[in-house]
Amino acid sequence: MTTSVSAAGGENHSTGAHSGARDGGWYEGALGAMAGGVDLSKLDARGAEQVLWRARRFGLVAPVCQRLPAVGAVAKERLRLTAQMALVRETTLDVARVFDGVTCLILKGYPLAVSLFGEGSRERVSADVDVLVLPGDREEICGRLRLAGYMPALEEAPREWAYNQHAWRHQTTGVLVEVHWAVGFPELPHLGVGRCLRASETMILRGVEVGVPSAAWGMVQLAVHLQQHLGFARGLLDLAACVDRYGEAFVSGEVEALARELGVWGVVSWGLGALEVLVGRKGAFEGLERGGAVEAWARVSAESARGCLVGESPGRWGGTIAAVMPEVGPLGAIMLRAATMLVLDRPSMRLRGALYATLLGPHEVGRRLSQAGLERWLGPG
Description:
Elements: E1 4-6, E2 10-11, H1 25-34, H2 45-57, H3 61-65, H4 72-98, E3 104-107, H5 109-117, E4 128-133, H6 138-147, E5 150-152, E6 165-170, E7 176-180, H7 193-198, E8 201-205, E9 208-212, H8 215-228, H9 233-246, H10 248-262, H11 265-279, H12 292-305, H13 316-322, H14 330-339, H15 347-359, H16 364-371, H17 374-378
Parallel strand pairs: 1-8, 4-7
Antiparallel strand pairs: 1-2, 3-4, 5-6, 6-7, 8-9
Region (Disordered): 1-20
GO molecular function: transferase activity
Organism: Lujinxingia vulgaris
């Protein structure tokens, strides 16, 4: 199904209209729990700056800045976010024009922010542009980026055995464009890029047509993104906003059906289960995987995010779960990444995922094993 969405005029979607994330619900409940129940708007200048420092650590600067009083560092941060939002959104439109004629989707970013919060909102501000393309179109896409003034962000070739994207940086603006050739990291089940592209929708953003994932694919991708970041707080907020936007019935219908078919319903259940714990609405979602690794990760994610903006700072491991990037060493991060594979739906997927994440991670051993052809033995997800 292809659906046209207008940034200015809302959308026509088969799931119908639901209350927006800004009106409360799961999103406000999750953010309120992360703030420990503190009314952020009533903090003094010192308290606001302390919360802002925490928000940077956990990737929550944009929503937090909308609630803190506009004093001192907060006022400056709001201006910075406004400038960043304008630059990245303009880059998104430029990228859509540059890739005209090539099948691709914009993941998260500008389209997701508009869909969840509206064109003028600063509730969700992205730092880069993520593009999903068919593996066979990578060479064409990268060639167009180079002609448009982008250069690879790293001198080395993409680490295809460990990641699913190649970052390009604009030589003038410095904005990153990440070209994805897979929905998830290589250790995850094969999620069908072609199928995701065929199920795409079209948004009209400032007169430019932009391809985006369908609502169900978009939520699955956000859950996979949460797993890749070990259950981080910002990922929980994204899922919460999507539930507010599309409704719990949509989750237990289209999203569950798609995720089960792909073998990642446990991944989706992890994020949604964490929201239940964080917001205090246990059992709100029907059909979630319960118990075992899924419930364990859900509880760890929720408790690491709870009160992360105020009070006692999460410890080393709690910070690793809630923060945008791991705060432990490479070995600890690899162990955690492998442990997240236990939430996959089938035993064979869990075993392969854990082995792949451990042996073929973003480390020198992974590089050597990749050169030796270990991927062929582990096979595609």
